[in-house]
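Bumping with the actual sequence this time:
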Amino acid sequence: MEKFLPILQIVVAAILSILILLQQRGTALGSAFGGEGGFYATRRGIQKKLFWATVVFGFLFVALAILNLILK
């Protein structure tokens, strides 16, 4: 169990990094100065699934980190 948790945490961190990089980028300050698109945009389809997968893997990463601290 001691060797399993750090390896699992590394795998979750790698997947979380990939999910974050796959997120669609916004227009940044362009929308604040009248650029295309509105301020509010709904997530649909794959964007919504990527967002929730990122949230789940984020919580999983934090839980594994806390569990790793408790068991050491």
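The tokens above came from a reply further down the thread. The two ends are 11 Å apart (CA to CA).
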